UniProtKB/TrEMBL annotation:
Domain spans labelled B12-binding: 212-335
Domain HTH merR-type, first and last residues per copy: 23-90
SMART domains listed in its UniProt record: HTH_MERR
Entry keyword set: DNA-binding
InterPro entries xref list: Cbl-bd_cap, Cobalamin-bd, Cobalamin-bd_sf, DNA-bd_dom_put_sf, MerR-type_HTH_dom, MerR_fam, Meth_synthase_dom
A Pfam family this chain is assigned to: B12-binding_2
Superkingdom, natural source: Bacteria
Positions of the UniProt region annotated as Disordered: 1-35, 91-118
Protein's UniProt name: MerR family transcriptional regulator
Amino acid sequence: MNTHAGNSDAPVAEGGQRRGGSTTGEVARRLGVAPTTVRTWDRRYGLGPDAHTDGRHRRWTAADVARLERMCALTATGLPPAEAARLARSEEAPTAAARPRGADVARRASAGRRSRAGSGLRLGDVRQECRGIARAALRLDAAVLDELLLAAIAEHGLVAAWTEVIVPTLQAVGRKWETSGEKYVEVEHFLSWHVAGALRRATPRTVEDRPGATTVLACVPGENHTLPLEVLSAALTERGVPVRMFGGALPVESLVAAVRRTGPAAVGLWAQSRTTASRPLAQHVAAMEWGVRGARRRPVVLTLGPGWVGQAVAGLARPAGLAEAVAALESSAYP
């Protein structure tokens, strides 16, 4: 990791770390945790820097960071934080015969930290933030999870944070759920809830309606997976596009009524499953008209989500991802 800041000429030690040590923020980013977590571990468990430099800002050496990495690996195995901290502070590792099971698991997790991201989830080659988000989700740590999600959105923007950070973590949690006898359902629900909350906090402002510029977003009847639509709504709001979001499983009659009442520029229909995707419904919405005779208008209809794969509707767009959907809907609102 490159820790140079601007044109600083601070001496750099082997491995890229300044000889003065890393700041708490730099250490937190490297570990994939919130800075408040690093400070809490310091205050509560004595895992702070061994040496102090002059001034208010503390510096962490490579040895200090290695101790925190052991702490992360140990807590990821399920050890209570106090016990994990005791083991992380130990200068000498236990012998093989006396090594606690949790420490042995942590040793293996540390060896494969790149693929498992130190969280017990198979994340693969992903952004570093995924590691901290996954770890916070597994711990059901609401405060840290919120902080990390908001930080990822602030740093990368909604679209990139969703595509490169949130989706890989959600997919990893889903795989864990599927392969463990549904033992991690609460983790998936917990993470999804906090992602939705972070999206709302990141885009608190509702855009005022403008005639002919509104986008209607809804799940098709029988479909309750709303999170992808929520991020699409947030991304459009961020770009000044007025959105009317109707969420999960909107009945046909209600969808038709919403379209007639809003006269939208575009309608996005989400289907997670092929069993819920309905070509006749999409065609019906695309054929709806309103306005005065001679100047009738129809909405642009986008079929969104994996449920539409293999069920293409003639004349209707099916964006490949979030960025493409945002671009298509934005161009519909501002032709």
